[in-house]
Amino acid sequence: MRLKRVERFRELRLTLLMDTYQELIFMVNNHIATQADFDRFYRAIQNCWLLGTPEHIELAEKAIKDVANQVKSQAMQTLLYSLHNEIRREFGLSKTEFLATLVGFHEGAKQGAKASNETEPVPTSVL
């Protein structure tokens, strides 16, 4: 019975981490422009705090501070990389190199990036 509970928790954790990863990738690609976007981002960060490793928790804390200050977030890039590889590890897959370039987290950043010919971040591998 205990093994079933542990396995169920593991599956639930993995599902939530995948959802969190996808939400954060969406936010990076589409930027936080509204309160609803920020709420969505904050829920993903809360999942990191609840279910992440100590590294995820620390990086999520730094990332949310960066977003609040509307600055590029190295912590977010590192968090995405760490979540990416945690999910791959849970599936028995090897680590991969994953790079995301953050344009910014503020209204108009997407238009500014396109005007300056910056490209949208694209993952180098897909789960």
Structure, explained:
Helix 1 packs antiparallel against helix 2, helix 1 runs antiparallel to helix 4 and helix 3 runs antiparallel to helix 4. Helices cover 67% and strands 0% of the residues. It is mainly alpha-helical. The chain has one domain.
SSE layout:
Blueprint: H1 2-30, H2 35-51, H3 54-68, H4 74-90, H5 109-115
Helix pairs in contact: 1-2, 1-4, 2-3, 3-4
Quick structural gist:
The protein has 127 residues and is an all-alpha fold. It has helices at residues 2-30, 35-51, 54-68, 74-90, 109-115.
The protein's oligomeric status is: single chain
Mean pLDDT: 78
Q: How many structural domains can be distinguished in the coordinates? A: 1
Helix content: 55-70%
Query: How many DSSP helices?
Result: 5
Notable characteristics:
single chain, 127 residues, mainly alpha, 67% helix, disordered C terminus
